Write the structure tokens for this entry.
Amino acid sequence: MPKQMVGALRVGEPVDSVFLVAECALRSTRAGGSYLNLILQDRSGQIVGRLWDATEAFAATIAVDSFVHVKGKVESYQNQLQLNARSITRAETEGLHLGDFLPQCERDPGEMMRELTAILAQVQDPDYKAVVDAFLSDKDFCADFRTVPAAVQNHHAYLGGLLEHTLSMAAMALKVLEHYPALRRDLLLASVFLHDIGKTRELSCKRTFRYTDAGNLVGHITIGVLMLEDHVRALPNLPEEKLNMLRHMILSHHGELEFGSPKLPMFAEAIALHYLDNLDAKLKDISETIAEDKNADAGWTDYSYSLKRRLYKG
Amino acid sequence: MPKQMVGALRVGEPVDSVFLVAECALRSTRAGGSYLNLILQDRSGQIVGRLWDATEAFAATIAVDSFVHVKGKVESYQNQLQLNARSITRAETEGLHLGDFLPQCERDPGEMMRELTAILAQVQDPDYKAVVDAFLSDKDFCADFRTVPAAVQNHHAYLGGLLEHTLSMAAMALKVLEHYPALRRDLLLASVFLHDIGKTRELSCKRTFRYTDAGNLVGHITIGVLMLEDHVRALPNLPEEKLNMLRHMILSHHGELEFGSPKLPMFAEAIALHYLDNLDAKLKDISETIAEDKNADAGWTDYSYSLKRRLYKG
Amino acid sequence: MPKQMVGALRVGEPVDSVFLVAECALRSTRAGGSYLNLILQDRSGQIVGRLWDATEAFAATIAVDSFVHVKGKVESYQNQLQLNARSITRAETEGLHLGDFLPQCERDPGEMMRELTAILAQVQDPDYKAVVDAFLSDKDFCADFRTVPAAVQNHHAYLGGLLEHTLSMAAMALKVLEHYPALRRDLLLASVFLHDIGKTRELSCKRTFRYTDAGNLVGHITIGVLMLEDHVRALPNLPEEKLNMLRHMILSHHGELEFGSPKLPMFAEAIALHYLDNLDAKLKDISETIAEDKNADAGWTDYSYSLKRRLYKG
Amino acid sequence: MPKQMVGALRVGEPVDSVFLVAECALRSTRAGGSYLNLILQDRSGQIVGRLWDATEAFAATIAVDSFVHVKGKVESYQNQLQLNARSITRAETEGLHLGDFLPQCERDPGEMMRELTAILAQVQDPDYKAVVDAFLSDKDFCADFRTVPAAVQNHHAYLGGLLEHTLSMAAMALKVLEHYPALRRDLLLASVFLHDIGKTRELSCKRTFRYTDAGNLVGHITIGVLMLEDHVRALPNLPEEKLNMLRHMILSHHGELEFGSPKLPMFAEAIALHYLDNLDAKLKDISETIAEDKNADAGWTDYSYSLKRRLYKG
Amino acid sequence: MPKQMVGALRVGEPVDSVFLVAECALRSTRAGGSYLNLILQDRSGQIVGRLWDATEAFAATIAVDSFVHVKGKVESYQNQLQLNARSITRAETEGLHLGDFLPQCERDPGEMMRELTAILAQVQDPDYKAVVDAFLSDKDFCADFRTVPAAVQNHHAYLGGLLEHTLSMAAMALKVLEHYPALRRDLLLASVFLHDIGKTRELSCKRTFRYTDAGNLVGHITIGVLMLEDHVRALPNLPEEKLNMLRHMILSHHGELEFGSPKLPMFAEAIALHYLDNLDAKLKDISETIAEDKNADAGWTDYSYSLKRRLYKG
Amino acid sequence: MPKQMVGALRVGEPVDSVFLVAECALRSTRAGGSYLNLILQDRSGQIVGRLWDATEAFAATIAVDSFVHVKGKVESYQNQLQLNARSITRAETEGLHLGDFLPQCERDPGEMMRELTAILAQVQDPDYKAVVDAFLSDKDFCADFRTVPAAVQNHHAYLGGLLEHTLSMAAMALKVLEHYPALRRDLLLASVFLHDIGKTRELSCKRTFRYTDAGNLVGHITIGVLMLEDHVRALPNLPEEKLNMLRHMILSHHGELEFGSPKLPMFAEAIALHYLDNLDAKLKDISETIAEDKNADAGWTDYSYSLKRRLYKG
């Protein structure tokens, strides 16, 4: 039985496939009955699922982040597709590919990693090079780095999103360095690579994306500085000044205290990193917001809470 | 008598040359005497000048923005050079080159203009092309555009500064367009050219730089939109939507209402323009702030009021 | 069949009349059925309409801003009136008066326009007079000016609202001028007239009120300055200083950058205009908020999002 | 010996007259000598005074807010007048008129008080009338009310300033009431009278103007509410609701929490009072700022710290 | 028939008891029927109540803040308990104890009052002592003071909450005074007692808790200062300076203008009072937010609007 | 020759002693001469020093942070003492006690350290205890910790200031824990100890106090988290959750993002730490501001830039 993808479901289509449970709640009807309301997900999107006449005992068997086998039919409710289930059972995880159930970057992580590595190979200063290599040669880190999304929502919120965002910034940084030759190439390239590494521990993406406790309590900026600390321990000759500049780049890249940076950018490369990050994130947020806007015909998107404005599609 | 440049004066050097008067005031000594205190300027910089035992009647003959012939000697006062004048007389303006007296871009305006024109020649959309050409073929505009500074102080505050800033942004825009191919090339290039054209009327640079009344009352953002209006009158077929997008790009390029933009950027090219502008202006401000910092030995600059922070020179 | 006005409908009343569709959506019931949910409007107000067992095909025939003929009965749902439709058909527009379907100022536009013209006739300075006359003699402008609302919601959100707001400010300005004789009469009166003219193009009121693309992208403040430009082109002798002061009055009338004015008011008349505008708008907003508050018996209104507070009715 | 007024002194004029000491400090010259530096004041203005070769013992005899008899000559120092004293002695206060030494309103307080009383006589509601009369019949209050300035600096900073400001607002309130007839006349008029009464205890104007301890610790807004409390104690029949509305008008008249109002205006008359106050204060501040600007020829004033902008004089 | 407490109700339990009506509204079902939706309350909590097939006439007989006798059964709806009523009738108030129906402090008010009185007995300065005694000997005040909640929601929102909050601050103040001996003991203790007395008139707690008109228009800070005024009238020898300091403590205890204090704390005891208040209120808010969080298993609470963050329960 | 202390110098006193140079600049007189202007310091305070007729060559031999032997006489200039030097020579550092030249805490560091250690000995949780012990047993850390000031200026700006501030908070924390028993004792005590440890590397106090490059680029909050990392490396069994909570306490103790905390306090102990820190720092700042205010007789201090207000001394 091949996987039926959420993004390909059509009204009236019979369904017999496995999905990941993103949310799950037992609800009652006014008439006194009860039904199970779920958000079902795979890598192509999410759909509401409903199982009528469910009991509390049954509901207790369906956990968020588990896989379920759903049989039923696609219907339309308030102009949105909905999966009316005839039966829902816990699925065997054996034989399932997690990659089928989580949104993923369109580009291949391996290819992106090779491109990023190629750019970072341009770093010549032996100190910055040693720092970069300490991360690139850390297999656990690399595995996380190529997997984690860049955010839970808003922009690059899919597996590989952090890598895609970092690679895009690195390629753009090469152009900025070409145009502003006074910028220190090695410092900027190394910092583009490092600026968001803390997200590998701020976000959990084993199943549905969420913030870890460390993410909420410490945050990716400080986590990133701590990960840097961890990796430079083996580099006793790294000059303190260079280490402080790398720490500063990570700390200040949000640009303003009220956006969570405990320090303002205080030299040219830190300013450049901040704008490279913002430019890439905002352009991605804009294109995703327009692509996902519900009113395809409207000239303007709905209000975007991340961008704090409506966007013109014209 | 060759022009002696301020930037080349050394302690003990006799002076016999012409300077532009940037400021002028009669001051008294505690002992009851009085002296004329001036800021003298040429394109290489400014120096304090002093003429002892000056009378009010004499002081009244020395106007700000006039040229004076100064004879005297360079001395050092509180670690700064100072020109102690033996005599100050009004200079004949005949034979003077204004260009010798105002700070100027290091690059040749003609060459920069050719480079900018070459970039703008890439605009293919006939509507945006017509708008660009309407300005490029306006000789009065072009003369102002290649002359005016980008600011009275902070960054690019020299003749040709606006052109240099605009050219830098245009060249950088080409790279951004290469990297983000979804951005509309012609819209962005035309808007980079137009975003600050209002500065040609916001700033006066005939002599020392200052804001015009129109600059203070209306501001370069609105002046720019009005100049656009003026130039598109001859283009009756320009679609209203494109005109509104160009207006929006000019209006929103400061990025936030509190920085004087009456509208937030509402589409991708407007966001890109905002970051291109900020990146170029901030990097220039940083490099000038560090270059001009008085304490050459210090690791940090003095507090910068435009950047609202001290900068690390390391 | 006479028009049945929304404001006069009572529970149990049979309805057989034409309404304007302000909003329209097909919704499903939990039981699997579907119904059409509409906001129906005429000049006296809005009412929810519902047609049960509607199909998607039928829903597609009902467009926002079209007229529909509704037969059914008024019922009460959660203490609000609701029109339960037996049938909904597209209405012939022939014979309909648009004025029956959009909220309108209680006062007659012609009379208000005569009063405003009479006040503006007091402008004596030939330059300001010429500017005022350029607008008053522009028939298209006048037609728009007497029609457009002052806002989509909050205050004066009805046809003729802008004219009523402007007239009220002009009459109040006469009193302010009497009390503060140092204020320049002609400058203030002309500016009161001009301050919001951009709203004629920022807002669309052909059917239900909404922002135009130009309104969202450029805004009424800049549009107003552009309309002024358009009208003074025929006045080559208008002194630049007076034109800049008029532009400044329009630009600065919101009083603060964060409210969308790119310039702060910089002379007495600009400050006076700002307070005249705010006083009239806020008092109107307060009286409308109290009048429309749902809990007629309560001593306090609900929280008002435009005023950012609850109001005391005592 | 007639009083020589500061405002009438001219360069070279011999001086033999009495002044009020606003500031006083012993300063040393670089050469090791010392001199007394004073700010001398009378109702027409302030002038710097200097007595050379003063001793610390002598300086200790000259107190701020005392009167001194100065003999000397007017000179010019850095384009400002300065009184070079030959001798300074403590003046007999007998025979001095305090009114000669403090800035005063140009209008006669008695006449202004009669005008204000006439306006307040229009209050018809017996409750509000009783409150107004309780203050008008309190001789101590009235004596203070007609004397105190409206501020230590910025606007109406002269004897009688509070009365002039209140009278101006009351007269303007009549016009606002005429134009907005829904406003409750008696509530607004009574509140205009009461809104700043706390300034009679917030400011001390016996000699040079300054804040009292109560002014700094409690502030005129709360003091005003307390003075109201004091005066309504004799009015047991005053309805609690009216008293709360009067308190609210006083408390909220600064319009925003960050300007020191603990409550936002919550009904129409409170909003009207806020704008009446701001309009009168700002217009006065503007006209005084322009009148007192040092550079009479300049088109723009210096930066005004109270208005947070430069003003256009055009 | 003993009172059945909301907090002890269990699914399936038959109910035959009296409750206080906190909210009441007639609602319609989609099918056209109607039901009465209530929030029923007693001192142990609130529960949703529903009576099916209610008429508008019947609904009009059930008033908010009245007592009703409900017969029915407890059911579960969307994981929350709900009381499905078979009958609802107005209850006789005779024999009811109001204390059974409003949330109350766990501690006994009499005991708390004795503890607070014991702490205040340490005030030795005869002036501050006289002020404290003026309140403690005012029986009406004391009755209100021991009854009123500290807030309508967020923290200490139960009968006796103000007393509990004040007592906790007073006991903590003793420790602060011990640690910072330079703080003036009597001033701080008296001010802790007085800082929130205005809440006795800002809040109404006869039935469900709400703001009074005086609370909304004047606020507890100013009401507190007025109550102080009232009580010191009988103390003619109280030095003005001490009175101003007490007023200042009350006025400034919110710490910042934007939190409703018209004055910033300007001496050490005022700062200490501000932190004592904030520490006690925030710790209480945190513990209540965690205790009441719906998702007992989650590691983080829902977003708290009063604290503007989510809380970690770990 | 015994050390003459700055704080004990009197007018007319001959001086022959060693001082630390805090600032040094060559200045010219108007008459063309030049003099050396210094700020001389020892642990008791600072005094202006002047050496007349100094040459640039001589000035170059006097470095900031060096020791100089000054012979001269104390005079009074503008009511401030001034040391007029007859001769200034570089001092032999041999035999000098640095402690004589830097401001120091009045209490003995050893004694304070013992008190703090005694409090920390109460920590019972083995994990938190291990963390605390890791620092207490680090001799280099302890040496820095008992030496460094808590700030360059504002509060506790003297050697031992950080220890005094931490000890005061720890002792106060014991009282807070006694009063709020739900707070986790060990977590709070350990965090009070750790919250500002980063200041040992943010501030340099070898000679005059200043920020280090690491202090400016990274800041004491992040440095503190890094130092924690360094010390827990030897504690492999420390649970991740406890480590994250300690990190969070350090990160969030400034309470708001705009004060440099990248995270808001998210549990009760973090809030308590924030208020303990603020209370101690503000009370110290207030008492120092009042003690150092120049106008001993005035009832109010000058404006304090750290507290953003003037203080009442009454």
Summary: The first strand of chain D starts at residue 14 and ends at 28.
